[in-house]
Amino acid sequence: MKTITKTLELDYTLLIKIPNASPTSTLLIDIETTGFSSAYQIIYLIGVIFIQEEHLVFKQWFVEKEADEYEMLYEVAKFSTPFDHVIHYNGTNFDMPFIKARMTLYHIKNTIDQLIQHDLYISLKSIKQYLPLENLKLKTVEAFFNITRKDQFTGGELIHHYKTYQDTPDPLILNDLLLHNEEDVLSLYACLHGYDLINYFYALRNSSDISIKNIVKSVAYIIVDIDIKADFELKINMPYYQLFINHHVLSITIPVVTDELKLFFDDYENYHYLTKEDYAVHKSIGKLVDSKYRKRAKRSNCYTKKRGSFIPLSNKGNEDLPMFYKFYQTKPAYIELNDHFLSGNGHLYTYILNILRNL
Predict the structure, then answer these.
(1) What's the average model confidence in pLDDT over 11-34?
(2) Which end of the chain, N or C, is less surrounded by CB atoms within 10 Å?
(3) Are 356 and 207 in contact (CB under 8 A)?
(4) pLDDT at 173
């Protein structure tokens, strides 16, 4: 078995971004295997990043022959004992179960499994719909964060290289194997910038107080600027809104609909629908109308109409305001945009807060 240790010329500030984790007690890990089945294949290489004496350190354990796997796993288990947290990329589905299965096979106490898990893949998945990413493959995320690699091989391609190395140890093949794993772990470290996004959206979803900095109103839209700082810029197109996040402010653009919309009444049994006027009135008034021009209201036609300016309401909230619709049981609902809504009575505040909480 080979062990490689090197000090990295990187600062460890990215580890500070991990929620509720001490940087010095946090371990980043990635494994390389000879296949997908933990029952029949082995782990031939494990790479980790950690902090040692205020320096970021990279360490690898490489199995030169399959019989060395036990020694490697034993050493890794012993090494990971002082740590409290482990970070990986999709390790919940692959790395961690694979390590557990192989350590169980050798009756090694799995200290890594006892660490608090932070799966960057799963965390990014919770906000993927807001990111300009086709998928969450590591190489796609690397491109998003402008991370480049020297390694040109996939993990699958390197399985054949490893088997070739076992038959004929070649320093060039060994370098390819080690480089791929090293760049996987270094890439994972660089992708911790993703926690800027994850933590930002977590804060938005758990907002209890916001500061509205500015409101711009036009015929077609309103823009609400909120005083929330970020370490990145991002434009998000949502079904009914557009968000632009920059370093100093979060801007929410809300489309304004100028139209005649319908306000439906729940207690339709108490209403008559007036066929000529195309709206409903209470029975106490409807009985005064000629029976030829009125009929019992149904849920779908028990409404009154109003022309004005409206904004969409895609989430729960602002239930104390009348909700208008273009048609019966269609989404979104709309609320009227007027001076009362925009004044300092809390309606706009609640509206914006509900957008953030439902991200």
Answers:
(1) 94
(2) N
(3) yes
(4) 94
Residue 190 to residue 28: CA distance in whole angstroms: 11
Quote the pTM value.
0.86
Contacts 24+ apart (CB under 8 A), 280-284: 280/304
DSSP-assigned beta bridge partners for residue 224: 215, 252
Does residue 345 surpass a pLDDT of 70? no
Tokens encoding 200: 């930002």
Host H or E run for residue 96: helix 95-105
**Residue appearing with tokens 């034993």:** 74
Distance of CA 205 to the CA centre of its chain: 11
pLDDT in tens, 180-190: 999 999 999 99
**In what side-by-side order are the strands of the sheet with 279-282?**
279-282, 271-274, 294-296
329: alpha, beta or left? (left if phi > 0; alpha if psi -120 to 50): left
Name the residue with tokens 């990043």: 49
CB atoms within 10 A of CB 323: 16
**To 10 degrees, what angle do helices 347-357 and 194-205 make?**
140
Nearest-CA neighbor of 167 among 295, 64, 95? Answer: 64
Where in the sequence of the chain do the CATH 3.30.420.10 domains occur?
A: 2-198
Residues 7-25: b if buried by 16+ CB within 10 A, e if exposed: eeeeebebbebbeebebee
> Nearest Cα to 127, choosing from 197, 29, 30?
197
Neighbouring-strand partners of residue 258: 309
Burial class (CB in 10 A: 0-12, 13-18, 19+), 120: buried
Alpha-carbon gap, residue 250 to 228, rounded angstroms? 6
User: Closest by alpha carbon to 46, among 9, 75, 83, 85?
Assistant: 75
Computed on alpha carbons and rounded to an integer, the radius of gyration of the chain in Å comes to 30
Measured CA to CA, the distance from residue 165 to residue 171 in angstroms comes to 9
Q: Which CATH class is domain 2-198?
A: alpha beta
DSSP 272-311: EEETTTTEEEEHHHHTTS-GGGEEE--GGG-EEEEEEEEE
